């Protein structure tokens, strides 16, 4: 049995560290699709050549329901 007070405390802590509305804080990001594709064969271009770097950045944040499910699962495993 999960203690609702424990669940609420963890949720309040996550809200606290997120510091919503501020430029400082920490957010949870789903890292399941995080990958790195790098090809660094010439770090500096030869004279007359150029290096083009295309950057694509995407992040996915879990919903409140997903976070609540994870908190509940965590608390159930601890008991």
Characterise the protein shown here.
The protein is an all-alpha fold. It contains two helices and no strands. α1 (4-18) crosses α2. It is elongated, with a radius of gyration of 21 Å. The mean pLDDT is 81.
The helix/strand order is: HH
Major sheet size, sense and barrel closure: none
Kindly state the mean pLDDT as a whole number? Answer: 81
Separation, N- and C-terminal Cα atoms: 8 Å
Shape: elongated
Proportion of β residues? under 5%
The helix fraction, in percent, is 25-40%
- How many distinct beta strands? 0
Q: Which regions contain 5 or more consecutive residues with pLDDT less than 50?
A: none
Radius of gyration: 21 Å
| Helix/sheet category | mainly alpha
Number of helices: 2
Annotation keywords:
single chain, 79 residues, mainly alpha
Give a short synopsis of this structure.
The protein is an all-alpha fold and 79 residues long.
Secondary structure elements and their pairing?
Layout lengths: L3 H15 L45 H15 L1
């Amino acid at each position: 049995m999960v203690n609702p007070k424990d669940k609420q405390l963890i949720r309040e802590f996550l809200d606290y560290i997120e510091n919503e509305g501020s430029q400082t804080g920490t957010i949870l990001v789903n890292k399941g699709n995080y990958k790195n594709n790098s090809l660094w064969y010439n770090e500096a271009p030869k004279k007359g050549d150029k290096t083009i770097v295309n950057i694509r950045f995407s992040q996915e944040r879990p919903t409140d329901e997903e976070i609540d499910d994870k908190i509940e699962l965590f608390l159930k495993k601890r008991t």
